Automatic annotation (TrEMBL):
Keywords: Signal. Residues 1-19 form the signal peptide. Pfam families: DUF3757. This is DUF3757 domain-containing protein. The keyword Signal applies. InterPro entries: DUF3757 (IPR022231). It comes from the Bacteria. It comes from Pseudomonas sp. WC2401.
Amino acid sequence: MKVVYVFVCALFYSAVALASGTESCPAAGDVTLRAGVYTAPSSRAGNEWVAVSSAAVPSQLETFEGAVFYPQDNQPGAVGRIGYCEYKARDRSRVNLHYRQSAASERSMRFANTENWRPVESGLGLVVYECNAAIASNCAFSIVD
């Protein structure tokens, strides 16, 4: 019985640790716009999503369009860094939110749901992964601790 209890506790602890490290692109409605700067909260303390508008008169984000992930050392695989999450604003401009980690916690990332990420190779040989899910939260990744 003691072994089962330890196993269940370890399983629970692992699930909590995994959940606390999972991030995804924020929903368009969760992004705030103040003085031309778009921001959205992150699930990890000290980290945030941020973009600066290039439009003369910035407008609120309307729809999520997709996300880009850069694999480490340009090698195919699920470890690397999130490039950006792309949105369409009401004025039809495109806004790319970037995931900003606190300086003390610069860590690599890993896909949380590989089925939504597709590899794309540019004409110059750069390998990136795109997520074109209709829902922003389906473009998820986890922080590698």
